[in-house]
From TrEMBL:
Pfam families: DUF2383. Residues 7-115 form the DUF2383 domain. It comes from Psychroserpens algicola. Gene3D superfamilies: 1.20.1260.10. This is PA2169 family four-helix-bundle protein. InterPro entries: CHP02284, DUF2383, Ferritin-like, Ferritin-like_SF, UCP029477.
Amino acid sequence: MKYSEKISNKLNELLVKNYDAEKGYLNAINNVESDKLKMFFKRRASERSEFAKELRTEILQYGEIPEDSGSFKGTMHRNWTTLKSTFSSNSEEPVLEEAIRGEEASLEVYNELINEPNLPPTIDRMLLKHRNAIQSAINTEKVHEELVS
């Protein structure tokens, strides 16, 4: 496998994670009452949509074909979050817990690719920007979780 194909495959993996995260945040909006949390999730969904656009652009520049949807695992995770919040007396806490878990999984994939040797500077900068935004979201979500628990 040539280098550009290897990098494109890893970028596609991140692309799918971003599709899943965007859909997860949009789903979370329907599972919380707080207007502040709804706005927070809406901003996170928008941010993940933007990340996906940037990743698609990079993949296309390598002459590869970007994925166009999320994963089965992501769909199952969203269904689990909805079910969990349905049976919880405090529906916001389990939704936040699942959002944090999903973000931490994304962070692992980003960190793995960032540690790839000889990444082109444009990809490296983009990945660092995404990773730092995801880490910031995790920190914010943990604060929100403490407030609702």
